[in-house]
Amino acid sequence: MINFSILGSFELRTRQGVWVPRGPKVRRLLALLLLRPGQVVDIDTLAEELWDGAPPRTVVATIRTHVYHLRQMMAKESGEPGLADLLTTEPTGYQLRVTEDQVDVRHFQRLVADGRTALVAGRTAEAAHLLREALGMWRGAPLTNVPLGPVLTRHVAHLEEKRMRAMELSVEADMRLGLHRELIPDLRGLVASNLLNEWFHARLIEALHLSGRRGEALLAFRDLRRVLHEELGLEPSAELQRLHHEILAAAG
């Protein structure tokens, strides 16, 4: 089976190895088709991505030429001659006829959905396993080797939000399993890379507190309060204020 990877550098994995199409526009074209597997991507969307809203007068013919070159590369360079047949011309645009199982983004989204369902149902260990598997699919920022136009930029931002939500669900599952000490290093990393995300700060403070490290928990709250005040002129949320008072009460 041919597999397409988007969660990191863009690449296709075939029986012959890894293949990445040459040419920035051809690569963007294929990436956009893969983000909508089995769906028709219309000419207007392709034009917006490839020319940032300022397409040439011969846009339809030019896109047709890019598709022709992509098909040639798929047939001659990918190691899978039948791959080119999956790229079809439709009345309103183009479609890549691959299944969702072949695209890592779709697999990631399905694992997260299953993990969320398991968490809601109280199957916490199963949820934690599914969410770790989902997050383990990420090899870096999406499409790192593709020059992004406006449409792909929106897709990447959406994927990063999905990843953030998966991280939150994973932390929640591990907290329910009592893995407070084990979570502290990861939470410190998440806080460092998401300074204004109060949810991650709250989980770090909570994990420190439940691990018997109340002094560090109070210092973490102080650091957050300083960041919020300096960056936004705000105080921590009501949830964090309550958590702070609980730690102070326990310390007393």
TrEMBL record:
<keyword id="KW-0238">DNA-binding</keyword>
<dbReference type="Pfam" id="PF00486">
    <property type="entry name" value="Trans_reg_C"/>
</dbReference>
<dbReference type="InterPro" id="IPR036388">
    <property type="entry name" value="WH-like_DNA-bd_sf"/>
</dbReference>
<comment type="similarity">
    <text>Belongs to the AfsR/DnrI/RedD regulatory family.</text>
</comment>
<dbReference type="InterPro" id="IPR005158">
    <property type="entry name" value="BTAD"/>
</dbReference>
<dbReference type="GO" id="GO:0003677">
    <property type="term" value="F:DNA binding"/>
</dbReference>
<protein>
    <submittedName>
        <fullName>DNA-binding SARP family transcriptional activator</fullName>
    </submittedName>
</protein>
<dbReference type="InterPro" id="IPR011990">
    <property type="entry name" value="TPR-like_helical_dom_sf"/>
</dbReference>
<feature type="domain" description="OmpR/PhoB-type">
    <location>
        <begin position="1"/>
        <end position="98"/>
    </location>
</feature>
<keyword id="KW-0804">Transcription</keyword>
<dbReference type="GO" id="GO:0006355">
    <property type="term" value="P:regulation of DNA-templated transcription"/>
</dbReference>
<dbReference type="InterPro" id="IPR016032">
    <property type="entry name" value="Sig_transdc_resp-reg_C-effctor"/>
</dbReference>
<dbReference type="InterPro" id="IPR051677">
    <property type="entry name" value="AfsR-DnrI-RedD_regulator"/>
</dbReference>
<dbReference type="Pfam" id="PF03704">
    <property type="entry name" value="BTAD"/>
</dbReference>
<dbReference type="InterPro" id="IPR001867">
    <property type="entry name" value="OmpR/PhoB-type_DNA-bd"/>
</dbReference>
<keyword id="KW-0805">Transcription regulation</keyword>
<dbReference type="GO" id="GO:0000160">
    <property type="term" value="P:phosphorelay signal transduction system"/>
</dbReference>
<feature type="DNA-binding region" description="OmpR/PhoB-type">
    <location>
        <begin position="1"/>
        <end position="98"/>
    </location>
</feature>
